[in-house]
Design brief:
Layout: H1 21-29, H2 43-65, H3 68-81, H4 86-98, H5 102-118, H6 122-135, E1 140-146, H7 148-151, E2 157-160, E3 163-164, E4 173-176, E5 179-186, E6 193-199, E7 205-210
Parallel strand pairs: 1-7
Antiparallel strand pairs: 1-4, 2-3, 2-5, 5-6
């Protein structure tokens, strides 16, 4: 019999049988549910919950088969559909960890811990905190240093992998996953500045400086119109 992930987890009991990832994850996903819905819950909510259940089941089965690359995107969609679901978040964190994306896993464990503390679920925030603290020394970190001349440019925007990096993150060693990261800076009247940096190992410390942005070439539309040619007069 299949247990609904929207039902409260059964009371824990000791069993000599091996606990599989599927059984652990199924229990975790039980926390994805919102409180019991009234009978008049609309069809869109029912469809959302059914979709979440299906995606979660498929993701857990793929994790058991070792198909992590396929499982993680499904779990990301479940978390998007069920943003308060602690079970989905901690399972996604495990998926990230298995795929070697330690910074992403660390962040998702932190989100699970925060939600578990808010909901007073010690069975969620304690294991999430333990995994978060265990991963922290292994995290690769990237520091973006921004030249003073760049900081004051009008319209300055800096992004890492398409995500804005606000000034509060500058000169801070921020956790990042292994792999290539694209840093892009744009400003009014300047050519886009772009660099790619590769983080090759867990625990690596890397720095990248955002230096001078070159002036953008003046477009014809920006050039002032030439003065009108005077019309010759007839004597």
């Amino acid at each position: 019999m299949t247990t609904s992930p929207f039902s409260p987890p059964a009371a824990s009991r000791t069993s000599p049988r091996r606990v599989t990832l599927a059984s652990v994850a199924a229990l975790a996903f039980a926390l994805i549910a919102t409180p019991a819905q009234p009978a008049h819950a609309d069809a869109s909510d029912t469809q959302r919950r059914a979709t979440s259940q299906t995606l979660y089941n498929e993701a857990v089965a793929e994790m058991e088969r070792g198909d992590i690359a396929s499982a993680c995107p499904k779990l990301e969609e479940v978390v998007r559909l069920e943003p308060s679901g602690l079970g989905a978040k901690i399972t996604l964190a495990r998926c990230y960890e298995k795929s070697g994306r330690l910074a992403s896993a660390w962040a998702m464990y932190a989100a699970t811990e925060e939600g578990g503390l808010r909901e007073k679920r010690a069975d969620r925030w304690r294991p999430a905190r333990q995994r978060k603290e265990a991963l922290e020394p292994k995290l690769a970190r990237l520091t973006l240093n921004v030249d003073d001349a760049v900081k004051d440019l009008p319209g300055l925007t800096i992004e890492r992998d398409g995500i804005p990096v606000g000034s509060g993150q500058w000169a801070v060693a921020v956790p990042v996953d292994r792999g290539k990261h694209v840093i892009r800076a744009t400003a009014t009247g300047k050519e886009p500045w772009e660099r790619t940096i590769e983080i090759k190992e867990d625990g690596e410390r890397a720095e990248l400086r955002v230096d001078a942005l070159r002036d953008a070439p003046e477009s014809p539309a920006d050039k002032p119109a030439p003065p009108p040619t005077p019309t010759p007069t007839t004597p």
